[in-house]
Amino acid sequence: MSTNETSFKPALHVECRMRDTDGFVRPDRVREEVTEWICENFISLRIDQRLENYEELNHGGAIQSISVVGFSGVQEDSLFHRLADVQLDVQAYMLHPYVVDDHVSEVRPGQQHDDELKPKTRTMPLPSANIHGLWESFTTRMGIVIYWLNCIRELTSKVSMTKSQRLDPNIVSWNHLVLLYGPPGTGKSSLSRALAHKLTIRLGKYFLRGKLVEVDPQSLFSRYFGESGQLVAQIFEQINAMADDEACLICVVIDEVETLTSPRERAATGNECGDALRATNQLLTCIDALRHRPNIVLFCTSNMLQAIDSAFVDRIDIKQLVPNPCPRAIYEIFRTCINELLRTGVLVPSKSNNEDPNLNMRPESPLSQSVHDFVLIEPISIPRFAEMEIRLYDQPHAPARKLWIISQKADGLSGRTLRKLPFLALALYTFTEPSTIHEGLYALSLAVEHELRAYNPHDTDLSD
Ligand SMILES: Nc1ncnc2c1ncn2[C@@H]1O[C@H](COP(=O)(O)OP(=O)(O)OP(=O)(O)O)[C@@H](O)[C@H]1O
Ligand SMILES: [Mg+2]
């Protein structure tokens, strides 16, 4: 197979999570051995497949799990991929335990010891146990984000080559700047962190380590007029210093970036204070100065694209609207919530398929009237969307099919609202513990109707 032919093939991503070996096992060795083992032992792989029987490998003892996590080609819906049709991308990584370093930058000589004069950042090593699993909770509706993940990976890997091969940033421009924007609660902040985590894993070939730096933009505004610009400079000095370690990928997340980058035109017309203007100018200068750093990626989020300075917007390489989840993504959000409730025993499978779900409901709940169509087949967990469509297409009473109907009804609600509804629904509409999945699903459908009514108070008929 020639290199050219291979580079046109989509990538199939396999993640090999290593045990904590205190640095005694090299991830590149594990990666090589696992790649070889897969090529010799498998013809095709399925997305989400967990590979077993790797214990006999030389590095088997250092491996905790091997999973097929994603596909970068166009047929996102197909679950099975022949190895002959893909480039196998195996990554080996170790998760850092839960740690957060709330960093307050040092106070310079002559400066007041005042919390308001200290820009705040939170740093944590990547890949991190804090964030692990977050990406997976997004992927269904996030085809476009998977696409961007691959783009950022490609761009970062190309600028991270050895110095002689490195692209000249003065000629080929890439500002390392990504903006996720959209309505509230659509997952922009979570997604930025998940992207940083995933990027560190996918770029394991180029970077031995990763670090997440979360900047609190509010802390960059000083009550002492004129300090904000300096505070911005201070934060970026720290980031620059971290980036001296070129084996470390630094992912910076600036949430609600519009607070830092209000349009300078407004300042010129006197509606914005000069301090904000200085902060914006300083941020632009700092971003320009980071361009030559191959190991920094900046993720920003905003609710208001129009409230961001145009010179900042112009510097952004990737702008991505993050909308409310589509019904299929809603199914995924509900599915993961309900499976978590089942796993922890808050919800239990039904005792029999003929169970009357009127039992165990709050007496005042409208549920006591009619839930007879909720006669369900006993589940252990709710399957993924694709499996539900294939395996349960002729079982309208299966919980997964019911959940799909509820998900379609919930279209228009934000990810944040959707994530809290399954649990909230139990508190609102059921009164015994634990509730069965019959009851949980019906309660959820009521909670969705209630929430939609709150959004559209004039729309009274939401029953179909
Ligand atoms: N599409 C989605 N899939 C899964 N979970 C989601 C989705 N959208 C939002 N969430 C969940 O909603 C919660 C809030 O998300 P987050 O804070 O990232 O939203 P945001 O877009 O940054 O909101 P804001 O604009 O108010 O800052 C998180 O728990 C996140 O996991
Ligand atoms: Mg946010």
From TrEMBL:
Q: Which residues form a coiled coil?
A: none
Domain of life, per lineage:
Eukaryota
For this protein, the record's InterPro entries field holds: AAA+_ATPase (IPR003593), ATPase_AAA_core (IPR003959), ATPase_AAA_CS (IPR003960), P-loop_NTPase (IPR027417), Pch2-like (IPR044539), Pch2_C (IPR058249)
What protein name does the entry list? Pachytene checkpoint component Pch2
**What are the GO MF terms of this UniProt record?**
ATP binding; ATP hydrolysis activity
**Entry-linked PANTHER family:** PACHYTENE CHECKPOINT PROTEIN 2, PACHYTENE CHECKPOINT PROTEIN 2 HOMOLOG
What keywords does the record list, in alphabetical order?
ATP-binding, Meiosis, Nucleotide-binding
Outline the extent of the AAA+ ATPase domain. Answer: 174-326
A GO BP term here is: meiotic recombination checkpoint signaling
Gene Ontology CC annotations of this record: chromosome; nucleus
As for family, the record states: Belongs to the AAA ATPase family. PCH2 subfamily.
Q: What species does this protein belong to? A: Pseudovirgaria hyperparasitica
